[in-house]
From TrEMBL:
<feature type="domain" description="HMA">
    <location>
        <begin position="40"/>
        <end position="103"/>
    </location>
</feature>
<protein>
    <recommendedName>
        <fullName>HMA domain-containing protein</fullName>
    </recommendedName>
</protein>
<dbReference type="Pfam" id="PF00403">
    <property type="entry name" value="HMA"/>
</dbReference>
<dbReference type="InterPro" id="IPR036163">
    <property type="entry name" value="HMA_dom_sf"/>
</dbReference>
<dbReference type="InterPro" id="IPR006121">
    <property type="entry name" value="HMA_dom"/>
</dbReference>
Length: 112
């Protein structure tokens, strides 16, 4: 009798996690959509990087792109900070074009 109960609890946890993540992604998308795209935005991504070579590939994918103002990469923390007038999806696509997975961790406005 304990097995069906524990299975039910497991399914409920998975469903709860899925719903939480769905709401979080929807809210993030709304924030990105509502931001003024002409003004630079600070974006923080978690990016799978294991060495400086990985970081250089990410930097090369972002540097010189229209709309990208600044880039900061911390390989040890696997974090990429980008200030750009691009959407988070556009920046994420540039990062992922290097073969690394990127997840948006945070978004904020830039000082004028």
């Amino acid at each position: 009798m304990a097995a069906p109960v524990s299975r039910f609890i497991s399914v409920c946890r998975k469903l709860g996690t899925f719903l939480f993540n769905s709401v979080f992604v929807a809210q993030a998308a709304t924030v990105v959509h509502n931001m003024d795209s002409g003004r630079p935005t600070k974006l923080e991504f978690a990016v799978q990087m294991t060495c400086e070579s990985c970081a250089e590939k990410v930097r090369a994918a972002l540097e010189g792109k229209p709309g990208v103002s600044s880039i900061s990469i911390d390989v040890g923390k696997e974090v990429v900070l980008v200030e750009a007038a691009l959407t988070s999806a556009e920046v994420q696509s540039l990062i992922e074009s290097t073969g690394r997975r990127a997840v948006l961790k945070g978004i904020g406005g830039s000082e004028r």
